[in-house]
Amino acid sequence: MLAPAVKSLAKTTRVCTYDRAGTGRSDPPPDRARTVDDLADDLHTLLDAAEVSGPYLLVGSSSGGFDVYHYAGRFPDEVAGIVMDDVPAPKADMPATEVPAWDSPDNPEHMDYVLFEHQLAVDRLPIPAIPVTVLWATHGQSPSQEEQALWLKGSSKPVSIAVESGHDIMGGNPAAVADAIADMLASLRG
With 80 as the cut, is the pLDDT of residue 128 above it? Predict the structure, then answer.
């Protein structure tokens, strides 16, 4: 089921959504631990196979924000802008006890979350000088503008917006997400 924000945007612009490997209707992931590089490569392969040409405005919610930010670092010529929806700051030293192991039934994507978080906290790729909008939930995982500021580094047009919501802004305040995406699209189209 598409989020209301996605449905409203699809009326005026091309919108593509997907399920990551191991989730929704996607194929299962390879039988090995996966990293944020794997997720960026999966999205790159998907967009190429679907013949969806860039540059893209990427939108990521929660840990999906890690994916789109890393995608912009890996494929800088393909990304025109990023909107991030309550993306927590990554933890450099996340205890393995806080996350399921890559081969756990509770981890359908086979993500190595400890490595995933460490890489984004310590070895985060720089993004190109593109517009980045960060929506942060006042009652979310990172309820402060200071904590969200790390995602704005390197942006040519950094925007930080506090949204009255819990962590799931897309579900709790879809209009705020749709408005941020529409504003970014208008800015990109000039």
Answer: yes
